[in-house]
What does this fold into?
Amino acid sequence: MTKQEYQTLSEQAVPPSRWVRNCLRAFCSGGAICAIAQVFFEGFTALSFSETEAALLVNFVLIGTTTILTGFGLFSKLGKFCGAGTFIPITGFANAVVSPAIEYRTEGLIFGTAAKMFTVAGPVLVFGTVASFTMGVLRQLFLWIFA
It folds into this structure.
């Protein structure tokens, strides 16, 4: 079988891409999560919390809800249906921390839950910190050179 024949067969076997549907689901689900967060924010400010306190409470609600949904195995089902929209930074990060902690809890509190908790989120934290530090240094150098 030649490379061209293999390419033709593999293209026939691949299901058609549903990128428009996936984009719409991600957009709508991410927007719905943000709209729900805004409703909570408005509710907390209506209860006389300051904007800073309300923002912290909204983060607490989003992280807590994601943790509970992940614990019951519902967040992954929601993620399969909604796609990337469910992984807006705070909910996606909470899921990335909680999932390995739940998966490795049988190995014990220290070597299971605590050690594996940041296996997915750890590289994100490390490279995010390094990238932001590098960009900060480059920005400062740029300002010094061109100021």
Notes: The chain has a mean pLDDT of 89.
